[in-house]
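LAB NOTEBOOK - FOLDING QUEUE
OPERATOR: T.R.
BATCH SIZE: 2
PURPOSE: Compare the predicted C-alpha cell outputs for two unrelated chains run back to back under identical settings.
PRIORITY: normal
REVIEWER: second-year student, initials M.K.

ITEM 1
FIELD SEQUENCE / FIELD STRUCTURE:
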Amino acid sequence: MMRKSHVRPHNRRTVFSKERTNLRTEAGQAAARPCRRVSAECPLGPQAGSRERVMEQRAARREPRLFGRTHELAALWSQWEATTAGRLHVTLVAGEPGIGKTRLLQEIAEGAGQVGALVLRGGASAAEGMPPYLPFLEALGGYIRTAPLEQLRTQADSIAPILATILPELPLRLGELAPSYPLPPEQTRLRLYEAVGMFLAAIAVKRPLLLLLDDLHWADTSTLDLLCYVAQHQAVSRLCILGAYRSDELASRPALERSILSLTRNRQLMTLALQPLGEADVAELTTRLLGVPPDHLLSQRLWKESEGNPFLLEEVVRAWLESGVLTVTPSRASISSSPEARLPASIGSLIRQRFARLPQEVLETLRPAAILGRTFAGSFLAEAIGQDEELVEERLLTAVQVEVLRYDPPERYTFSHDLLRTYLYNEVTPARKRRFHGFIGRLLEARLDQENAHQLAQLAFHFAHSGDHARGATYSQLAAVQAVRAAAPFEAMSHYHMALDLLDQQDQHRGALWLALGEAALSAGVEREAMQAFEAAQTWFTHHPDMVAAARAACGQGRAWARLEEHAAAQAALEQALTLLHEHACAEQVLVLVELATLLAVSLGKHTEGLVYGRRALELAGQLGEGRLEAMANRVVGNLLVRGNELPQGIPLLERALTLALAADDPAEAAECCACLTTAYFWSSRMHQMQESLLRRIELAHRCQEPYQMRHLYPWLTACAACLGNFVEAEQWLSRAETAIASLASPEPQAFLLQIRGILAVSHHDYEAAEEYLAQAMVLFRQMGPGVLIWYLPLLGWSQALLGKRQEALACLQESEALLSSQEPGTILSGNVTLYLAQVALLLADWERITSYTTRLLPFQGLFLDGLVDRILGELFTSQTNWSEAQACLSRAEELARRENLLPELALTQVAQAQLALPQGGRGSVLRARNCFEQALALFQEMGLPGQVLAVQAHLEQLPERSSSRGARSLPAGLSSREVEVLRLVAQGKSNRQIAEELVLSEKTVINHLTSIFNKTVTDN
C-alpha cells in the first residue's frame, strides 16, 4: 500500500487547477542541482551525441502519437479535405495549457504534407519585442525564403510593394520594388489585408495550402483582424487555416473574442474544444513514455493527478522517474509506496526537477536563450554569449534530447513549451538580464535593416530592458513608424508609449512623439486616447514654442472630436488651430481650413459658413503652388458648391481638382475627386459622364490598391445602370457590391446598399420588399447620427405611403421635417429630402404640404435628385390644377430624359403627362392620355419591369372609349399611337436605327412595331 501523501488528493488537484490558469507566470529561483542519471532504456532519458545522431534517434523514436483524439483528428481532416475542393475553412482548436493543441495541429500538418499539401507555420508569442502580424510573418517569411524565384515573382506580382511593408524577405528575393502609393490609415490597412489575402490565394493555386497559426491567445489585434479579412475575402481559395488558443485566456483577450464572434457570425469558423484525456488514454500515453505499460495503481494515480492533461502527465512521469518513485521492469511500470510518491507542490517544482537533470553548463546556455525568445538561432546565441558555436550546439542538442527544445534545420531551436522558456527567463537575475539584453541589442544593431519590423521591435525591446534608455527610445520610435507603415496602429501606440516612458521629461522629442501617438490612436479608432495625446502635444509645443506643431495637435483634437460626433468641440479645436496659424501661410493652414469647411458644411449644416473657409483654403493653396494641396482645396470647394446647388460653378472646380491630382501622381486624391464628380454628374442628370467617372475611379482604386473605395463604387454603378433602364446590369453590379462590402466594419456601406435595393424594389413595383429593405437601412443609418439619417429617412416614408400605410408614412414625414429644419435651405440635401417628402404628400393628398413643397422644389429645376425634379414638379402642379406650369415642367422632364436616355424617368414622365391630360380635358385629351400610357407601357416592357407594365395596363383599361371633346377620331386599322409614330417616321424615309434613336427605343422594339403594323394593315414588308 502506498503511504499517505502530505497533501490530500483534492488539494493537489486544486493546486494543478490554479497552476493551469497561470502557467506562464510560475517562477522558480532554485539553483541547478547535480545531474542524476536516468536509465538509457527509458525514452525520457537524456542522450548525448552529434546533431546527426540526435536526428537519427528522433526519427527512429518520433514523438508519441496522439492518444484519445480520434474524433478531433477526423473532424480536422474533414475540414482539410473540404478545402482541397476549393472552399476556405477556418478551424480553431481551444483548450487549457498542455492539453495537446499544438501536437494536434502538427499531426494534421504531417498528414496534409504526405498528400501533397503545402504547410506554412506561424505562431504568436508572449515574449515582448514581437512585431505585428507575427504568425503571418513567420509563415509567409519562411515561404518567401524557399519558394522558387519565378514562382514567387508570379504569385507576388503587382502586390509585392504592398507585401514588402511587412515582409522584408520579398525585396531580398525579388530585388528593388517600386514604392506603393500613400493612403489614409484605414485604406492602407485594407490594402495590406487584401494583398496578403491575394498572396495566400495565389500560393494555394498550385497545391492546397494549410496555414497553421498557433498560440493565438497571444496574437496582436492586427493579426486577428487580418485573419478575419482573409477568411471573408478568400472564401473560394484552397486554403485551410488551423489555429489554436488557450480557452482559459479568452475572457481576457477581447480582440480574440471579437474575432471568434465575427467568424462565427459569418459561418466561417469551426471551434474544436479539446477535453482532458480519459484514463485509458493516459495509460496508453504512459506506456509510450516509459516503454512498458503501467500497472492499474500507477495508471489510476497518474490520471487523477494529471487530470488528463498530457503536459502535466509527462512532467509527473519525469519527476517520479528522477526521484526513483517509479519502478520500471521489462514488463511493467509501478509506483513505490514511499513517502516521496507524492505530487510536487507546484508546476514550478515539476519544471525545477526537470531542469535539475541537465548539466550546469547546459542550463547556463539555456538561460540566455530564454531571453532571446521562444525561437532562436544557435549561431546567434553563441555569438551573444561569446562561446564556441560547436560547443553551444552540443549543449542545445542535449536539451533537444530531453525535449526542452525542438530542433528545426538548419539551425533554429524552439522551446517545446513557452512555460519552460518563462521559467528559465525568470531564473536569470535582473542585473544579468539587463547586461544580456544590452549585448543582444548591440549585436542586432550591428546587422540592422531599418525596413525589418521584426529587428526594430527586438531592438526596442532589448535596449529598453538593458537600461540604455536613449537607444530604447530611438528604436521604439522607429518600430512605431514601421508599425504605422504596416497598418498596425495598436502596436505603433505601444511603441510610442514605450519611447515616451524611456525619454527624459524634458527631452526635445517628446512633443513629436505625443503627436505621432495621437495619429496612431486615431487610426486605431481610440479617439479618447488620441485626444489626450494631442492635448499633451499641444501643451508641449506651446511651452516649447512651435506654433505650427501646436496647431497640428489642435487640428488632431478637432478630428478626434468630429469622429465622436462632438461637433461643437471639434469646431472650437479647429478654430483654435487657425488662431495658432494666423501668422503662418503654410500647408497646415490649408489642411485646417479644409477640415473646418467640411465640418461646418457637411456635419453642422452651415453650408454658407463652411464655403467661406473652403474659399480661403483654395486661395492659400493657390498661393503656395503645391499640386496636391491645390487638388484637395479645389475638390473640397467644388464639392461644397455642388452640394449648395451651385453645380455650374462647382463641377469645373472638381474637374480641375482631378486634373491636378493626376498631374501630381496622387491616385488616392484623384479617386476622391471622382467620388465627388460622381454625385455631381448624377444630380446634373449626366449619367454617362457619371458612369465614366465611376469606371475611372475603379481604375484608380486598383492602381493604389485601395479596396475601401469599392464600398460605394458598385452600389453607384447599380444606380447608374438602373437610371438608364439596364436592370439586368444593375443586378450584376449589385452582386459585386455585396462581395465588396462583406467584411467592412462600418455599417454605412451596408446601409447604402440596402437603400439602393429599396429603390430598385419600388422600380419593380414590389413595395413590400422596398419597405423591408429601407427599414433595415434606417436601423443602420440611425447609428450614424441625424446628419446622415436625414438623407435617407424620407425614402422609408415614401415606401410606406406607396403601401397605403398612412399613419406610418405621416410619422416618417414629420420626423424628416424636424431633421430638415436644422439644415440650411437651398442645398442639394434640402432638395433631395423635399423631393421624397413631396411624393409622400401627393400619395397622402396633403394639399397644404403639396403647396409648400412645390415652392421649395423650384430652385432645383433641371436636376436629378433620385428622380427628375421637373417630373415631380409637374405632378405637384397637376394636383394643384396649374395646367400650364405642369405641362412646362413635364415637357422639360421629357426633353431631359430623352437627351440623357433616362428610360425609367421617360416612362414615368409619360405616365405623368397622361395623368395631366385626363383632368385637363379638352379636345383629344383621352387620346393624348392613351398615347402617353402606351409609350410608357412600351418602355416598361422593354426594360423588363412587369409590375410597372401591369400598373400602366390598369390605367389603359380605365380610360373612356372616347375623348371628352367631340371630333376625336380613332386611329386607322386599330393602330396604336406609338405604331402611328413609327409609321410616320418610316414615311419620312428613316431607318430602323434612326427611328429607335428618335423614339428612345431599341431596334428590336421598332421591328416588333413594324411587324404589328404589317399584320394590322394586311401589307407585306
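ITEM 2
FIELD SEQUENCE / FIELD STRUCTURE:
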Amino acid sequence: MARNQFVGTVIREANGVDYGRFLPRQYVGSGGRRHSSEFTGVWQHLIRDKPILPFLIPVFLLAWALERWIVPFSNWVPVCVTVWATIQYGRYRQQQIVEDLNNRWKRHFLCTQPTTPLEPCEWFNKLVLCIWPNYLEKRLSSRFRTLVQRRVKEKKPRPIQTIEVHDFDLGKAPPLFGLQRTFWSLEDCQPVLHMGFEWVSNEMSVLLAAKLSAPFAGKVARININSIQVRGDLRLVPILDGQAILYAFESTPDVKLGVAFGSGNQHLPATELPVVSSWLEKLLLDTLNRTMVEPRMRCFSLPVRDSKKRVTGGVLSVSVLTAANIPRPENSSRMTAGDRYSSNGSSFSGTFVELTLGNLSRRTGTSPKSTWDAPITMVFHGSEATLHLNVYEQRFQSVKSDFLGTCEIKFKYVFDGSTTFWAVGRKPGVIAAHVDQCDREVQLVVPIEDKSGEITVKLVLKEWCFADDPKNSQTPLLQLDAFRSTRYLTGRKIKVTVVEGRNLAPKDRSGKSDPYLKLQYNKIQRKTKTIQQNLNPVWNQEFEFDEYGDGEYIKIKCYDADMLMNDENMGSARINLHSLEANTPRDVWIPLEKIDTGEIHLLLEAVDTRDSETEDHNMTYILELILVEARDLVAADWNGTSDPYVSVRYGTVRKRTKVIYRSLSPLWNETMDLIDDGSPLELHVKDYNAILPTASIGHCAVDYQRQARNQTVDRWIPLQGVAKGQIHIQITRRELRKQEHPPAIERQRSSRVEEVSGRVQEVVSRLFSMVDSEDVKDQMQAQLEELVNAEQEQKVLVLQLLKEKELLLSKVKDLQRAMTGLV
C-alpha cells in the first residue's frame, strides 16, 4: 500500500504533470480487485525469469514434509519462502508499472511533440500497390471521369464544338506517398501531417472525343492522354476532433501530361500534340489551384454511420452580420467623414457584400456601418458547394464599386446526415463547424484573404434534397433490364403554378421589363403569358406534367420580350423534384441564377393518379354534356345575325347540335352522352351556310378531368378566337358499371345460343345414362355421338356469325360518326 502511494506521488510530481491519470486503478491507491489473475501473472513471470523454479518446488515440499512429520527442523524455512515470494512479487509489480509508464509516456509524447522525425512510407505504398488494381483504380477512375467530363465541357476552347470522355483508365501505377519526407508538425496548436506526393504513370489511357467546329465542322478528333506526372507536397489537417480531415497541396504541384492524337493502336497511331497538352495541363493546374492548393482545402469526412442517400442539392440561408476592419483603398481613405453623407444627412456611401453560390449571385444592401443581418436564401446543386463573399464599397456619384476583399466558406453533406462547414482562418489556422441536422444555426468569423479584415456570417442549412425519394420505391419494379435506362412514367402528375415574380432585373430603357417564363420538364416545354412593363409580375398560371422516372429537375428560364430584337435572358433556375412528396403542396421562392437579382414564386404539387387507376376495372364514366345556350355571338351574316350550331369534338367522336337560324343568342338544350376516356373536349361554334362554307364564330376547351364524380357543373365559357361570345353548358361526370349497361341485341342472342347448346348437351347425357339394353346400346351410342358432334359444329358456326355481325355493326357506327363530322 505504501509503495503504491509513493509511486503515484512520484509520478504526479515529475515535471509538474499529473501522470497518475495515465495509470490503471490497480496501480494507484489501494486497488480493490481480486488477486486471482494477479497471482497467475506473477507465476508466469517467475517461470519465465527462473526456469529452475518448477524443479525446486518439489524439493521444498519434501523438506517441509520431513521437517513437519519426520525430522523436526527449525521454523526458518517458511520464513525464507515467504520473504523470497514477497521479493519476487515486488519485482514483478515494479516491472509492470515501468512498462505501463513507458507506453503512456510514448503516447503522451507523440500527442504533444511539435514535430516528428522524417521517415519514409514504404509500408503504406506497398499497401496502396496491393489494393490499387482491383479497388482504388476503379473507384477513382469512375469518380475522375465525371469530374473531367464536366470540367472539359466548361472550359473547352473555341475550335472544339463538343467533347466527350469515351474511356478513362488510370493504369496500373498508383501514386506514391512520402518517398522523401513524412512528418507531423504543430501549427498554432493544430497538428498537421506533411507528406510528399508523386504520381508518375505511363500506362494510363484517357480517351477524349472532340467534335471540331468550322472550318473542320463535322470532324471528330480523338485525344488520348497516355501519361501523367504530378509532384508536390500534401498537407493533412484533422479537424472537429477527428470527424474530418482537410487536405491540400502546400504549393502548386508540378504537372505534366502526355497527350497524343489518335488512340495509339495500329489502325490509328498516336501523334504528339503539344498545344493540346499545354491546354489540358493548364486546365488541370487551374482546377487544382481553385480547389486543392493552400489556402483552399478539400474535406474528407469520417462519419460513424452511413445513411446511404445520394444528395442532389439543398437550400442554404445566409445572413451577413458585420464586416470589421475592412481596409479601404487609397482613394477612399482620402475621403472625409463629411463626404460620406449628403446634405440632408442621408447615407450615400457604404459597403455591401456580394454572395456567390455556384451560378447564383445575390448581394446585401449598402450600409455605411457595415452591418446587415438580412437573411438571403440560396439554392445550390450537389453534395458540396463553396460560398464566396466579396466585399465592395459603393461611393457617392460613382458607377464603379471598389473591391475591398474576398473570402469563402465551404460546406458538404456527410453520409450520416450531418453537415460540415470549413473556411481558412488566420495563417495557418482553420475554421470548422459541424451540425448534426438541418435548421441548426452556425456562426463563423471568416478573415478576408490576404487582408486584415473579417466577416461575421450566420449560416443555416435549411434542407438537403435526396435522389432516393420515397416516390421512387413506388415505381414499377417489374421492368426488363434492357429498358431500365429509358424513361418511364411513374403514374404521378407534377402541377406547377407560376404565381408571381419579384425584384426582376430591368432590361428596357424605361427601367422596366416585359417578363415571361419558359418551363421545361424532360422534352416538354410550357410558356407563360408576357406581363408588360413590370418588375414584379403576377402570372397565376398552372401547368401540368406527367412525371417520368428519370425526371429530376424542372428548368425555368426568364426572358424579357422584345418585338424588334431577340428576347433577352433574365436568369434561370432548376427546381429539384426528388423531395416532392405526393399530394403535399410546396410553396417556394426560387432565386434566379446567372443574374444578380430576381425570384420566382411557385406552387409545386405531385398528384398520385395510380390510386384511381387501380380502383375497379369494371367502373366506367359517362360525360353527360348539356349544351344549353349561347350569348353575344359574333354576327357572321351580312344582315347582322348568324345561324349558329355547335360541333362537339371529343377524341375521335364528332357530334353536332341543331341549327338555330338568325340568332346571336341561340337556345339549344341538347344532351349528349360521351364515354369518358380522358380525351380533350372541344366545342366549336359555327355559322351554317347552305352554299358557302361554314364560318367559325368561336371555340373553347372544356376542362372536366378535375371534376368529381356524379357532380354537375354549370358554366359560362368565353369563346376564343373571336372578340366576344359565351356558351352555356352543364356537364356531369357520372359513373356507370358495365353490368348496368343495357345489353345489346347481339349479346342477348349469343347468351341464348349458349343456353340452348347447354340444354342439348344435358339431354344427350341423360340419353347415355338411360341406355341399358345390350342390343341397342352400341347403335344408339354411335348415333348420339354423331348428334353431339353436329351440335358442337353448329355452335361454332353460330358464334362465328355473331362475331361477324358485331364487326359489321361497328363499321356502320364508324361510318355514321364520319358522316356526322362532315356535316
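REVIEWER COMMENT (ITEM 2): The two ends are 118 Å apart (CA to CA).
FOLLOW-UP: none requested
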